[in-house]
Amino acid sequence: MTAVFRNGYLALLALFILTPMAVIVIFSFDANRFPTLPWGGFTLAWHREALADAMIVSAIRNSIIVSLSTAVIATTLGFCAAYLDYRYAFFGKRSLMLVIAIPPAVPVTILGMAMLAAMSRTPMFGTPFGIIVCHAAIAVSFAMALIRLRLGDLGPDLEQAAWNLGASRWTGLTQVVIPFCRPSLIAAFCLSAAVSFDEFMVAWFVGGVNETLSVRVFNLLLGQVNPKINAIGTLVLMTSIVLVALAQAFARIGRTKEPNP
Amino acid sequence: MPGMAPIRRKALPALLGVPVVLWQLAFFVLPLVFLVVITFWKVRNFKLEPAFDLGNWEKVLTSTPFQRALVYTGEVALIATILSMLLAFPAAHAIALRLSDKARARWIAFLIIPVFSSYILKVYAWQVVLSPGGVLNVAFGALGLPQADLLGGMLSLHIGLLTLTLPVVTLILTFALMGMDKTLIEAARNLGASRAQVLLQVTLPAIKPGLGLAAVTAFLMAFGDYASPVFLTGSNPPTLSILIVDTVKSGSQWPRASVIGVSMLAILALAFVLVQLATAKREVQR
């Protein structure tokens, strides 16, 4: 491949990835009711209208609660699993790692159906709490991966040194391991929040009338063309992008520079 | 108390392990097991009742709508896999082997973003671009080109599916190519191999497991996808995921929806195992 052809091809790929995102953002400011050309003039009316919509506002509130709670749980569980994998050898370790790693690989329609079938037999059905526990089971996979990557850079010596100096296992964990992992914990938190914020199928099935923002968007999409979709879509897209970008920035801290031998 | 130390030492891993084990069992494994159990249950008076009835399996597996949807979904997923592999490889090759370290890091960061951001919105955006009165057709009109019916066919469906698969597949192939031993390529070039020979006889065999992982991932994503078939082909013809959602949302016939879901999982597991067997690196005999 010559350089020109190569760069042209990469530019096309970037264009393909950016086009749908740009369409949402650009048309959210278009005064036309129907998103098409020619441009109908700049307006903030749809953004204002979207934020005045009671269902959207309550969906935003639900989404904040669900994604933050999911992030807290997934990061905590993800750290426990990553540390177990890093520090201990035990019976059933492979199976445990498997049930943590696999959930994102199961199609969400099937996962949603299964989780609904189980949840509908508990009082958690139709509550934000039901969505949270299901989202955490999915997001823990990403949280654990990010934290485990960081633990791989810790090396066995530092914790051992703390033990030799008289620190208990618990002190070693809280004073050495967790501070070392802090950037990856923040990264895991942001990514888990993004995964939960973005997920609509499980939330749609399990949440009942408690719609998250992604479910609200999905329900709007199922209905008539509605200029509010682009406005709320812009908010959703920007939130996801910021969360994933933050996750990447924190995941990079302390890596690349000095690979531990 | 020296005697306490070993107990505490064992208490910590238990303290860390038990919650996450219970969580994944309760909210991931159990629902899936329950899904399998439901496939044998019966619906009586719109209520689900425990039973051991193989009739659900028989009814679904022999029904024409299921078989049609199965073949269609499989075809679509296979085409999507091939398309995304073919389109992603040149990009991954360029990113992994040709770009500077800085540009490569930037591309990887750029490709990770769309993996986690609002797939349904992007599918909707393609609807806006491709629809009869949409952006592309207006642009065609302005250029004096004839209007094209872009929405609702295989073209729009695969544009949607590529939105889902292309970033992931490109990332997996990029990591695979970054991980390969580049001296192999240099050696082959020095020995006079052409670019095509290097690609076919050195590079591709060297990243065989990565190729397998990328292909399985693309197949899995396209096979289970719901949004693109719904919004870009109007659920016509229906895919297996659409059959599931329709059955679940209509409230009855849970057992039959479960049969479809469990069948899909079985197919995906089979695809995974087959590709693993085909692409696993054989131990080098010494």
Q: State the order of secondary-structure elements of chain B, H for helix, E for strand.
A: HEEHHHHHHHHHHHH
Radius of gyration of chain B, taken over Cα atoms and rounded to an integer in Å? 24 Å
Average pLDDT score of chain B: 89
CATH class designation of the largest domain in chain A: Mainly Alpha
Share of helical residues of chain B: over 70%
Helix content of chain A: over 70%
Q: SS-based structural class of chain B?
A: mainly alpha
Determine the CATH superfamily of chain B: MetI-like
Rg result of chain A: 22 Å
Give the biggest beta sheet of chain A. none
Shape of chain A: globular
Number of domains of chain B: 1
- The total beta strand count of chain A reads 0
**CATH topology description of the largest domain in chain A:** MetI-like fold
Number of helices of chain A: 11
**Which second-level CATH architecture of chain B applies?**
Orthogonal Bundle
How many individual β-strands of chain B?
Answer: 2
Tell me, rounded to a whole number, the average pLDDT of chain A.
90
What is the CATH class of chain B?
Mainly Alpha
Q: What percentage of amino acids of chain B are in beta strands? A: under 5%
N→C terminal distance of chain A: 36 Å
Feature tags:
A: mainly alpha; B: mainly alpha; MetI-like fold; 2 strands; globular
How are the elements arranged and paired?
The complex is a heterodimer of chains A (261) and B (286).
Chain A: H1 3-27, H2 45-52, H3 54-87, H4 93-101, H5 108-119, H6 128-151, H7 157-164, H8 169-198, H9 201-207, H10 213-222, H11 228-252
Chain B: H1 4-38, E1 42-44, E2 47-49, H2 55-62, H3 64-97, H4 101-115, H5 119-130, H6 135-142, H7 154-179, H8 182-190, H9 195-206, H10 208-224, H11 227-232, H12 240-249, H13 254-279
Antiparallel strand pairs in B: 1-2
Helix pairs in contact in B: 2-13, 3-7, 3-10, 4-7, 5-7, 7-10, 8-9, 10-13, 12-13
